[in-house]
Amino acid sequence: MSSDLSVILPRVLIVSRRSVRKNKFVDFVGEYHLDLIVGYGAVPVIVPRVSGVHMLLDSFEPIHGVLLCEGEDIDPSWYEEDTSGLSQEELEEIRRVHASDTAIDKEKDSIELRLAKLCLERNIPYMGICRGSQVLNVACGGTLYQDIGKELSRKAPESQRVMHINYDDYDGHRHKVKIVENTPLHSWFKDSLEEEERGGEKMEILVNSYHHQGVKKLAQRFVPMAFAPDGLIEGFYDPDAYNPEEGKFIMGLQFHPERMRKQDSEEFDYPGCPFAYQEFVKAVVAFQKKVNSLTCVPKSLRLNKEMENKRKIIVRSFSLAKDLYTAGRGNEMNPSKESELEAGAEFLESNTALSVQQEKRLKQMGATVRNAGSYIERLKLNEEREKMARNVMGKMKAEQLTELLAFYHTMGQICSEVLEKKLHELVNNNSDFSITS
């Protein structure tokens, strides 16, 4: 049962974070993430943060979803952000206060940015939590504040300043965020959003906060879903790539909904907290189905009696052709068998677009018809056409030949795509026919 499930369930890649335990490096992923992914029907696959893994990501295929979460600050060189706005004393203070986050991990940066870009290229569902949201923004051309407290909060009015990390009350600390209407966050937390008579809907919830950096310039493709009172974007998504039922999900959340739980309890602060994971996995499952539908190999068709008889006649014709080819041109064939060659010749005439693999397969079945009259006639005609084409092209200029080559290359690609579509339709039609019969 478990082995079957490992094949059936979709795979969600999660990159580990490196830490030190007993003077040794260890890799870990927060268990809340894993619990929710498994609980909603996917398999978490942990990508270790070790040197060289960013070059081995193909080995983790198939990838049906990516969840990136906690970690250190992203190297500013990835988004070309300098620190000229901060004094040396301020930078030293930031490194001292946030020592566990300011130790940049370039290997983790490489792995996660490559995964994020892979998701964007292939429309693989992606959810970024905390650092994962920052990775997504940077991967799309956005930038980050080096330190929210120094660059943003101190410029805000006193009433709008926010403490985005509280080491004295790490898990218990909360601050307000305002939810943007008609966004996924609004849908997930709508039952918990407070309302006020004065000023209309308040649209606020309390979220946890474990970061000193955040989105500065939001990448163009994204739309904000929530703001802190100081103006920091606390959540964003791509509306053109969000439809969980169709396998679309590209989103970043600065807070940790999986850790928003009541004190000394596993109960969530709000019923909407786990919805991000629920909808993410829904998209992952749909994406897997979509990929499987494109890559699955059709089962062997069951032919009706008439089609099976035709198949046997063609196979017989190919077998005779093979015997003729093996025996050589000089040997005469029994006139009664010459008519049997016609079935194979007609088949080849009506199926002129054979790939190299198809030709090899036909040869294995005895489909060599080099001495069949109709085949030889067609071969001579093709040779004459080729000779004429060579004469014409020999008189053409290099520029003309280059343009001609480009044209036929394009036509070849179009032909290949149309042929693949027609063959796919033929398989489906035959499958439907065999089922109904």
From TrEMBL:
<dbReference type="GO" id="GO:0016811">
    <property type="term" value="F:hydrolase activity, acting on carbon-nitrogen (but not peptide) bonds, in linear amides"/>
</dbReference>
<dbReference type="InterPro" id="IPR011697">
    <property type="entry name" value="Peptidase_C26"/>
</dbReference>
<dbReference type="InterPro" id="IPR029062">
    <property type="entry name" value="Class_I_gatase-like"/>
</dbReference>
<dbReference type="GO" id="GO:0005829">
    <property type="term" value="C:cytosol"/>
</dbReference>
<keyword id="KW-0315">Glutamine amidotransferase</keyword>
<keyword id="KW-0808">Transferase</keyword>
<dbReference type="InterPro" id="IPR044668">
    <property type="entry name" value="PuuD-like"/>
</dbReference>
<dbReference type="GO" id="GO:0016740">
    <property type="term" value="F:transferase activity"/>
</dbReference>
<protein>
    <submittedName>
        <fullName>Putative glutamine amidotransferase GAT1_2.1</fullName>
    </submittedName>
</protein>
<dbReference type="Pfam" id="PF07722">
    <property type="entry name" value="Peptidase_C26"/>
</dbReference>
